Amino acid sequence: MGRGASGPTGSDAHGRAWDETVLDDDFVRAAETAEPSARARMLAARWRGSAPEPQPWRSDEPPAGWFWSRARARRRRRWWRRS
């Protein structure tokens, strides 16, 4: 749409400037700004009002049902051995 029958228009002059720009590795690595990840933006928006309470990396409480798993497995094995 930028070109008419008579030749390039004013908007094409701007487009030609971008045609001459080379986006090589040096150009990309020289960029000073970096956009945060989507999760980082989501958490920042969620915590803007109030930050979460600190929690330990590993909880002191065991996961739910962890102590039942071995007893059940032994019971099943004994039942299969009886047959």
Explain this structure:
There is one protein chain. The protein is mainly alpha-helical. It has one domain. Helices cover 47% and strands 5% of the residues. The protein contains 4 helices and 2 strands, in the order ββαααα. The chain has helices at residues 10-19, 25-29, 38-47, 69-82; strands spanning 3-4, 7-8. The chain has a two-stranded antiparallel ribbon. A hairpin with a 2-residue loop joins strand 1 and strand 2. The relative contact order is 0.05. The mean pLDDT is 74.
Quaternary status: single chain
What is the terminal-to-terminal distance? 82 Å
Question: In terms of per-residue confidence, which ranges show pLDDT below 50 for 5 or more consecutive residues?
Answer: none
Tell me how many strands there are: 2
**Mean pLDDT across every amino acid position:** 74
Shape: elongated
**H/E series:** EEHHHH
Number of domains: 1
Share of helical residues: 40-55%
Strand line-up of the largest beta sheet: 1-2
> Could you tell me the strand content as a percent range?
under 5%
Structural class: mainly alpha
- What's the number of helices? 4
The radius of gyration is 32 Å
Largest sheet: 2 strands, antiparallel
Secondary structure layout:
Elements: E1 3-4, E2 7-8, H1 10-19, H2 25-29, H3 38-47, H4 69-82
Antiparallel strand pairs: 1-2
What labels describe this entry?
83 residues, 4 helices, mainly alpha, elongated, 47% helix, 2 strands
Quick take:
Helix content is 47%, strand content 5%.
